[in-house]
């Protein structure tokens, strides 16, 4: 049932009239947002898809722009496509309410001759972080805008996670600092999908304490949610795509307009042709990389109902207006429950009965949820991890900040956190910044916004060249994972085969080819030095968190055709060494001895737990298992103890291990359930096999892992008071 | 949390990318042909080498005769030189004649209509005052010209003509010669980086007085900016070479960086537009050096290309040796002293196109 609430005090006259004319009544969460903004609070809206979040933030902004004729607003969206879509909504409201607001998009596609006009006269500007990064240093041209900035909207906030999120957090600090320089302190309104840690996340992202608005007043129509496991029982295995294709055919035949999501571009096209083959109607595919005109045609076709079915990547997950459909099928778990609900929300935006189907893949997480629907429906949403403290990322933003305004020690601590002044000091010593009476001044010769990319961590960059043309610049870590010699590399919808990777010249040569296979690289990491910063005793082990330097070795890659391994090819790349964050937990040699005497293989046991634990991490922390690395040993170099380590696969860390450390117990319990409930005998891709293991998934002992995890879960959480000896012997 | 012991090389990672690291290749001027003073890239190296040796142990103050100036923003170093100059300019009626002859200043009259009027013998805006359609606008312009309302007319022309129109060159005639400010800056890069030298030239009687504000260290930038800003009053007209697109926006940007107030849009005559209009066909390019050679017959010896200024200045910063500053200061001074000469030639050219 819809829950409405009359705003008190009543809406500003023109806004109120607009609502009456359009028969709009505000839902409870929309009124709550408006009240918070009125009271001068920053607010974060975490209500479901299609609950009217856009209106929730536009209403108070429209009121503000009416009552203060100088007030201006900035709305940020993660992608250009979303920005254009939101422009329509903002324009239709403001044309009726604040005719002089002239909302406009200011991004890389904005024609040069319009820019000055937008800067000077648009009262609502829509943009994206990338553009913001580049325009901040031009703030003197934007004086009027920054001076009067009253509202800042960060839409799709949950998308700012990991490395990209850490960049965004620092970028928002830079922006708020520039605004503060001109005397403004805008209200921040964040809109996000449901996440597990809205308040701390918003604080890390913006540096502000926000009021979180959870409960939605928007009506939710009846929905049936079907969990479909083609891998059960194990002997009747069907593939995810085949199952999804036949479900889609069935739905379309029943005259249900159906949208099927896949997790890859290639998958979208495969599934579209699989479904279409057995069907008279054409089932188109939709993905990024198509021309805007083609995409618009597909969007229109969906809206008008001329397509009964479409297969899409996550490109249709958010924002883009395609009307409401009858059913949504997801071929494979989208990686997070939050994305699952987003996708599912594409069906049944009205009160009609909607159908959502999740077709499981073979992955451990998919299989876990198939066996634990209560976890799927009932667990709190995943946590979003970001780490603006990452020193590599922070250093780049300090350079940019010092090129925007002189950077004082006070600025560092107000805006950029406790490590900022130390890093700024180092940058001064290195000569990129110069100390002056006014603060640190950027004194390099390159333009900082150009050399500091807001993705990656500023490590060594390699150029991918095909036919003498530069197709992409990527960081060394990503190059090792995706563009090693022999790799099939995807770029803008085309496939390239990587020929050579030359670290000295920084050049990767690739040929554009059509291939019917994929490649996965396998790696193994080993910590070289470990600095523990905290530890605790829990679940029968000693759990630690700290900084590590990892040396990653990439021994081989696997070639797969239609998901089936075809061959394994050796690689000869030098090891990759980087500093990052990790959590690790260790046992005693006696415990290992006991396992061995019980007939288990201790090394295989630890290795199996490492794999399964990493596979379950995304259930708690919004990430991909590819973002993490693991290591297990019977005798750790520094302590001599049997240890399992999980580290962030990104230089400096992206907050994943830090969140994993905090959510260790939940992850461990799910890992235990995953392993004990998997029907396989001695391990399979749905539990302890890792698709990127550098030692060919050898050795692994599933029974041993189940036993040790069982012991850990029985030991449960022991508070620090019970065993003081374990918490006092801090390594450093 | 940042751990300096474990995480090393953060500054090094950026030092390489932020600092100027001109390899030998980067020293070759992209545009070949008009660097008479710099025959080969090695000269830039050799020259810097020689300068470092020559000025070893010298301070900036010893190398350049100047004085420290005090501003609200601290101190900076000013170097003053002077040379003879007799600026010959036509009188203001040349401007009002040119305005009155430009029928296209009247809204609604484009190239074709103007041509038609010319064929009918109508050459002057005052001839249109009785015209049923254009009369009202013609009167406004004629009255403004009579009343010497140049501010109105210049703003009106900005709406009706392109930036390179001769009229804008002539509008500079309304500024008293002593209010012309010949202006040029040397920087560490293109925008968002410090300006290291500000050159300003003023006509005082029969001489051109050049003041160069030098940053002995980056910390002196706010002082130099505020000193320059004090020179720009509401009567000032900047005369620059590409200063509309580069020097002045750059100056404003840096002023904004330090929160120093700046004049929004001072009167400005950018000679580059007019050079392009008058001489584009006679020259391989419109760089200042090329123009000096072709028009003034002056070729610079041992001049430092602008692209190498950051490299030389960074060498000075690193070593404290003022040697590398010598060619930067000289280059900037020549830029300034040549501006009035080119300005003069352009005025001649637009009044007597046959020359």
Automatic annotation (TrEMBL), chain A:
Keyword Membrane: no
Keyword match Hydrolase: yes
Pfam families tied to this protein: DEAD, Helicase_C, MZB, WHD_HRQ1
Keywords assigned: ATP-binding, Helicase, Hydrolase, Nucleotide-binding
Gene3D superfamilies in the record: P-loop containing nucleotide triphosphate hydrolases (3.40.50.300)
N-terminal signal peptide: none
GO MF term set: 3'-5' DNA helicase activity; ATP binding; nucleic acid binding
Top-rank lineage group of the source organism: Archaea
Domain Helicase C-terminal: 246-392
UniProt-listed GO biological process terms: interstrand cross-link repair; nucleotide-excision repair
Coiled-coil ranges from the UniProt annotation: none
InterPro entries to which the protein is assigned, alphabetical: DEAD/DEAH_box_helicase_dom, Helicase_ATP-bd, Helicase_C-like, HRQ1_WHD, MZB, P-loop_NTPase
Occurrences of domain Helicase ATP-binding (ranges): 34-213
Protein name, as recorded: DEAD/DEAH box helicase
Classification lineage: Archaea, Methanobacteriati, Methanobacteriota, Stenosarchaea group, Methanomicrobia
From TrEMBL, chain B:
Pfam families (alphabetical): RNase_H_2 (PF13482)
GO function terms (MF aspect): nucleic acid binding
Organism for this UniProt entry: Methanogenium marinum
Superkingdom of the organism of origin: Archaea
Protein name (database record): Ribonuclease H-like domain-containing protein
Domain YprB ribonuclease H-like: 181-346
Taxonomic lineage from the root: Archaea, Methanobacteriati, Methanobacteriota, Stenosarchaea group, Methanomicrobia
């Amino acid at each position: 049932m819809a829950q409405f609430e009359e705003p008190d005090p009543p809406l500003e006259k023109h806004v109120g009239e607009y609502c009456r004319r359009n028969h709009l009544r505000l839902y409870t969460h929309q009124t709550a947002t408006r009240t918070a903004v009125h009271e001068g609070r920053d607010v974060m809206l975490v209500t479901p898809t299609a609950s009217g979040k856009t209106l929730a933030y536009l209403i108070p902004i429209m009121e503000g722009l009416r009552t203060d004729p100088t007030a201006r607003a900035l709305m940020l969206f993660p992608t250009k496509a979303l920005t254009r879509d939101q422009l329509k909504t903002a324009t239709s409201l403001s044309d009726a309410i604040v005719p002089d607001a002239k909302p406009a998009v200011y991004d890389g596609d904005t024609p040069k001759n319009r820019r000055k006009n937008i800067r000077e006269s648009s009262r609502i500007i829509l943009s994206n972080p990338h553009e913001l990064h580049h325009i901040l240093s031009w703030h003197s041209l934007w004086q009027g805008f920054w001076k009067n900035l009253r509202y800042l909207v960060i839409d799709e906030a949950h998308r700012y996670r990991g490395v990209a999120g850490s960049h965004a957090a620092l970028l928002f600090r830079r922006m708020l600092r520039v605004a503060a320089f001109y005397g403004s302190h805008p209200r921040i309104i964040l809109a996000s999908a449901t996440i597990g840690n809205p308040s701390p996340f918003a604080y890390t992202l913006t540096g502000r304490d926000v009021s979180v608005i959870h409960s939605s007043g928007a009506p939710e129509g009846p929905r049936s949610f079907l969990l479909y496991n083609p891998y059960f029982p194990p002997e009747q295995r069907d593939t995810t795509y085949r199952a999804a294709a036949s479900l889609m055919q069935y739905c379309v035949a029943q005259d249900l307009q159906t949208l099927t999501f896949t997790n890859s571009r290639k998958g979208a096209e495969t599934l579209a042709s699989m479904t279409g083959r057995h069907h008279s109607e054409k089932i188109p595919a939709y993905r990024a990389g198509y021309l805007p005109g083609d995409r618009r045609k597909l969007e229109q076709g969906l809206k008008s109902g001329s397509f009964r079915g479409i297969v899409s990547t996550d490109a249709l997950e958010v924002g883009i207006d395609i009307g409401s459909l009858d059913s949504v099928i997801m071929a494979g778990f989208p990686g997070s429950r939050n994305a699952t609900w987003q996708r599912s929300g594409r069906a049944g935006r009205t009160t009609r009965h909607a159908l959502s189907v999740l077709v499981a893949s073979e992955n451990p997480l998919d299989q876990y949820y198939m066996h634990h629907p209560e976890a799927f429906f009932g667990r709190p949403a995943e946590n979003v991890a970001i780490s603006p403290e990452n020193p590599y990322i922070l250093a780049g933003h300090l350079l940019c900040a010092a090129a925007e305004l002189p950077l004082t020690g006070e600025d560092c601590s107000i805006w950029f956190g406790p490590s900022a002044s130390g890093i700024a000091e180092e940058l001064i010593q290195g000569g990129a910044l110069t100390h002056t009476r006014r603060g640190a001044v950027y004194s390099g010769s390159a333009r900082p916004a150009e050399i500091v990319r807001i993705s990656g961590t500023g490590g060594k960059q390699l150029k991918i060249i095909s036919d003498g043309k530069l197709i992409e610049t990527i960081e060394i870590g990503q190059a090792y994972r995706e563009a090693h010699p022999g790799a099939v590399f995807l770029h803008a919808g085309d496939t390239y085969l990587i020929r050579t990777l030359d670290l000295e010249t920084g050049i990767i040569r690739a040929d554009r080819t059509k291939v019917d296979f994929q490649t996965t690289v396998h790696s193994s990491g080993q910590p070289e030095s470990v600095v523990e910063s905290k530890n605790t005793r829990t679940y029968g082990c000693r759990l630690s968190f700290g900084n590590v330097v990892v040396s990653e070795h990439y021994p081989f890659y696997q070639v797969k055709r239609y998901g089936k391994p075809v061959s394994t090819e050796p690689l000869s790349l030098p090891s990759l060494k980087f500093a990052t964050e990790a959590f690790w937990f260790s046992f005693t040699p006696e415990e290992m001895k006991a396992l061995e005497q019980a007939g288990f293989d201790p090394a295989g046991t630890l290795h199996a737990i490492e794999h399964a634990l990493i596979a379950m991490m995304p259930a708690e922390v919004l990430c991909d298992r590819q973002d993490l690395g693991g290591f297990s040993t019977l005798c750790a170099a520094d302590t001599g103890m049997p240890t399992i380590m999980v580290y962030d696969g990104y230089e400096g860390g992206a907050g994943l291990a830090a969140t994993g450390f905090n959510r260790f117990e939940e992850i461990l319990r799910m890992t235990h359930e995953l392993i004990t409930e998997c029907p396989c005998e001695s391990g399979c891709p749905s539990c302890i096999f890792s698709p990127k293991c550098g030692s060919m998934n050898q050795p692994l002992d599933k029974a041993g892992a189940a036993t040790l995890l069982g012991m850990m879960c029985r030991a449960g959480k022991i508070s620090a008071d019970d065993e003081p000896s374990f918490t006092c012997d801090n390594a450093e | 949390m940042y751990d300096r012991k474990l995480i090393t090389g953060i500054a090094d990672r950026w030092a390489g990318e932020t600092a100027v690291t001109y390899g030998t290749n980067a020293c070759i001027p992209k545009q070949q042909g008009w660097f008479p003073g710099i025959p080969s890239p090695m000269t830039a190296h050799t020259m810097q080498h020689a300068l470092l040796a020559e000025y070893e142990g010298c301070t900036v103050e010893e190398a350049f005769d100047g004085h420290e100036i005090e501003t609200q923003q601290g101190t900076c170093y000013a170097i003053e030189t002077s040379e003879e100059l007799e600026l010959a300019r036509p009188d203001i009626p040349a401007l009002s004649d040119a305005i009155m002859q430009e029928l296209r200043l009247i809204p609604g009259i484009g190239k074709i209509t103007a041509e038609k009027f010319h064929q009918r013998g109508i050459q002057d805006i005052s001839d249109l005052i009785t015209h049923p359609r254009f009369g009202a606008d013609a009167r406004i312009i004629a009255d403004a010209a009579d009343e010497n309302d140049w501010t109105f007319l210049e703003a009106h022309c900005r709406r009706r003509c392109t930036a390179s129109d001769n009229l804008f060159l002539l509008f500079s005639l309304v500024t008293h010669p002593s209010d012309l400010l010949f202006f040029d800056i040397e920087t560490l890069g293109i925008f968002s980086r410090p300006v290291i030298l500000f050159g300003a030239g003023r006509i005082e009687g029969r001489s051109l007085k050049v003041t160069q504000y030098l940053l002995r260290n980056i910390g002196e930038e706010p002082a130099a900016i505020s000193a320059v800003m004090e020179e720009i009053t509401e009567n000032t007209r900047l005369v620059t070479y590409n200063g509309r697109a580069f020097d002045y926006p750059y100056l404003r940007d840096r002023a904004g960086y330090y929160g120093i107030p700046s004049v929004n849009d001072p009167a400005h005559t950018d000679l580059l537009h007019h050079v392009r209009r008058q001489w584009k066909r006679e020259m391989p390019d419109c760089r200042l050096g090329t123009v000096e050679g072709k028009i003034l017959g002056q070729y610079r010896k041992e001049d430092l290309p602008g692209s190498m200024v950051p490299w030389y200045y960074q060498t000075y910063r690193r070593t404290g040796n003022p040697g590398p500053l010598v060619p930067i200061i000289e280059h900037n001074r020549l830029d300034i002293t040549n501006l009035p000469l080119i300005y003069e030639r352009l005025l001649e050219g637009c009044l007597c196109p046959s020359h």
